[in-house]
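thread: overnight batch results

M.L. [08:02]
morning all. the overnight job finished for the chain we discussed friday. pasting input first so we're all looking at the same thing
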Amino acid sequence: MGVLLLGLNLCFFILGFALNGISFEETHRNFFDFDVTLLLLSLVISLLVLILWLVNYFKNNMLKSFYPTSKYHVYKEWGLIFLLCFGISSPIYWYNLGKETRYRSYFSREELEKRCVTLRAGSFFLDGSYSYHESDNTVETDVVAVDTVTVDNVETNGEAQNYFMYRGKKYKNTSLLNKNVNSYILFDEKSDSIAIEKLKFWLVTQQKDSLKQLFTDYLKIVKEHQLEANINAEQWLSLINDYPLFEKSHTIGPQMTNDEYYPNIYNNQSVVRDTIDRYIARDNTGTEQEFYKYYVPEKKLNFNYARMADAHEDPDVNLETLIIPVYFALALSLLILSFRVTSGRSWLIGLIAVIILNIILGIFSVIISSSFTYGIGYCVAFVIVSVLFFNTVGQNRTKGYSGVVLNLFLWLLPGLIPLLYELLESYLHYEYIGIDTINLQYSTANQFKQWLENHVFEINWTNIFLVSIAMLFIGKKIRLWRGIAEA
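M.L. [08:03]
and the structure it wrote out:
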């Protein structure tokens, strides 16, 4: 089974790497792509492997046949079950790891960051959103300055709402100087602000060589990926450089087409159609579209470089997402082990008892309307089944219904620490409400609450580790329990 699952997960990793090459022609993700098919395929294969394994695994049970075993045998057997369950539950994880490994293989982080700096700067000069300036009586104190650049606070009279001040001069909000950039996860907000200020500084000081070099570097990336742009660096600079106010800079599109053309939208007098830098034509399907006269493939570049940046900076496959198949493997391994060491009858009764317990706790939680009810009830139930099981083993009584108790004990064990975490967080929440806002920042309860929220995944990994350690002790007790007479 180990060799089979190792080969299965390796195949999914290779599929993830091989099938997810980046096509720079894409501008959006297709959610009905091959990933969904692979997900369904992995579920079917995992289920078939699990069934075939369990059929053979339960045929010969040395624990039920009273073969001599070492005191750590149950723990070692559970460990093997857990590893196999992880192999069964993780093919799609390895597929995604292969996919993100492929994304990271295109460029090193340093090279990718260098390219994203160029693409971010280039997006400033393309059709996009403008910055928003609030008109109030407060002075902006968080403006980032580059070299000798200074940004004055916005005028507060009604007329000034359509303008903003920069280096002592008034500009319209629709001026090129007021544009935003397309950012990437590699950069923080401060970095974006500095980049924007640098570009504005180049424009107002007419550093044409720097601007032209930027456009040249941008178009070099375009050419490298065999994409299409209908302007060169000289034309780009000429089209946007409406010095000194930058109010009539030509619009450079982030792709060839803008949107489907709807004539009725321009019946509203507040919406004016751009007839200088856009034109209406029919596409290959015969649909009327708005086309840009001048364009570069910004949308294609932004989408695909964002995917590569995400794979480097914030990959979907990490310790936080690994916890999903690990928890599934933990739960499944305890279900299998409990069936292995008890009887099918005890296992089924235990399953019904767990369902009834959750229904009762759910009803009481609704009736009492308290966030503590379920957690407290769960912990009380765990304490009761723990006492009953260890009392049976300690006093060497007949088994009776202790098989059902053992099943409940094993199944409730992994949820104990997460439920205690929820109870503690709920308690701290009520403490948080009772603190006045002046002393809130310095409250020990609030600081501990923030710590818990920031370390939720570490707490879950600690829970998995502690359950694994506890199983070493529990396995010895299960072996002793197996030796007790049935009646």
